[in-house]
Here is the input.
Amino acid sequence: DPKIIQKPKYLVAVTGSEKILICEQYLGHNAMYWYRQSAKKPLEFMFSYSYQKLMDNQTASSRFQPQSSKKNHLDLQITALKPDDSATYFCASSQTGQHSGNTLYFGEGSRLIVV
Amino acid sequence: SQWGEENLQALSIQEGEDVTMNCSYKTYTTVVQWYRQKSGKGPAQLILIRSNEREKRSGRLRATLDTSSQSSSLSITGTLATDTAVYFCATDAGTQVVGQLTFGRGTRLQVYA
Here is the structure.
């Protein structure tokens, strides 16, 4: 059984609309992350959360807002969607929020297509 | 080698053959991690090798790291059709950001039965 649940698995959205991607992990990890993978770019780090606190936001615009209601839960709200936002969004987690040598565990991704 | 603006590399081999995939990175890293991503799935870590290690083995997998040339390799011996996947190397690129890995573009490996 998958230990990191992402929903929905696929979605199609209209330009300008808003969507929320859901992620829950059942690994008992303290840190969670969002990554994005598109046809044009390698897998790309977006956000880092440790103990429900935002640690870093690297490349994402303000249209991308992570939301953590529980320690094992990290959603991603995307507003004013653009076709360039089309990608697969992966949620990941790690045991601790320490820096070096963390193994990341990834979910199966949410594939977003913006038309 | 995978990295930067290079296109995704592709390899096709027969089951039972050995294969080596290479990765070069541009920035100092404390670790190199190798991940495998099967079609429709998320990446899964295979091996983590630290900057003070030159080689790491796990079953049929062997990773090497040469910090002087900033390169790493992943070898698979006796490949199976189930090894078909995209293989990525990832580094921490010296960042202090928790969980931030920089991934290469990957090598697509097709193993024919």
Notes: The longest strand of chain B covers residues 31-37.
